[in-house]
């Protein structure tokens, strides 16, 4: 889309497929998803990550500068880390595994960055071990509550093109599956012992509908924050 300075991508890892989203970003923390879909093989993930996307305003083609792949599932974590090793470049573009953190675990931090050891394990946040790590490859722990609240606010309260918003292209207007998934989580709130509103967790609106596209939008936004280290004024 016109005016975008960089692209991030995210892949939600399922048992037999990957759900993905590519998002262009403008100043003012404004996101413009332009390609969403499903692929089935690592080769397709690689092809998408390496793809040069044409720019609507005539600038040279751009590729995603940072991509996240969900490595939360222990059954495929090693597989995703190995994929990241093969696709990541030490100086970028970057392809890093990510893991969602439970609400309340991270306090005000929006993400944590952990190194990955030579055996493929993730160095603990409090660990002092830094030997034998894959240089330039990190695992990102995503503050689930923060980015859930962000996409919730974008979908319910913010106008297109406004600060900290997401604006979808008209070509996706009739994609019912996409938007059903995007709105298929809501906050499950309670009242704390002081009488104030207290977020407990995010729950599915309709358990029969997936929410994978919501996840990849959240991860793509976190990838933008990580790529800029929150220094959005630079663009």
Structural topology:
Blueprint (H helix, E strand, L loop, with lengths): L5 E8 L4 E9 L3 E10 L2 H9 L15 E5 L6 H11 L6 E8 L9 E7 L15 E11 H13 L19 H7 L2 E7 L5 E8 L7 H17 L7
Parallel strand pairs: 1-4, 4-5, 5-7
Antiparallel strand pairs: 1-2, 2-3, 6-7, 8-9
Helix pairs in contact: 3-5, 4-5
Brief write-up:
By secondary structure, the protein is an alpha/beta fold. 24% of the residues lie in helices and 31% in strands. It contains five helices and nine strands; from the N terminus they run E-E-E-H-E-H-E-E-E-H-H-E-E-H.
Order of helices and strands: EEEHEHEEEHHEEH
Shape: globular
Q: Residue share in helices?
A: 10-25%
Output the structural class.
alpha/beta
Strand order of the largest sheet: 3-2-1-4-5-7-6
Distance between the termini: 16 Å
Question: Would you count the extended β strands for me?
Answer: 9
The number of distinct helices, counting runs of at least 4 residues, comes to 5
State the major sheet. Answer: 7 strands, mixed
What share of residues are in beta strands?
25-35%
Q: Which parts are unreliable, with pLDDT below 50 for 5 consecutive residues or more?
A: 125-132
Radius of gyration (CA) equals 18 Å
Mean pLDDT rating: 89
Description:
With 235 residues, this protein is of the alpha/beta class. The protein is built from 5 helices and 9 strands, in the order βββαβαβββααββα. It has helices at residues 42-50, 77-87, 144-156, 176-182, 212-228, and strands at residues 6-13, 18-26, 30-39, 66-70, 94-101, 111-117, 133-143, 185-191, 197-204. The strands form 2 sheets. A 7-stranded mixed beta sheet has the order 3-2-1-4-5-7-6.
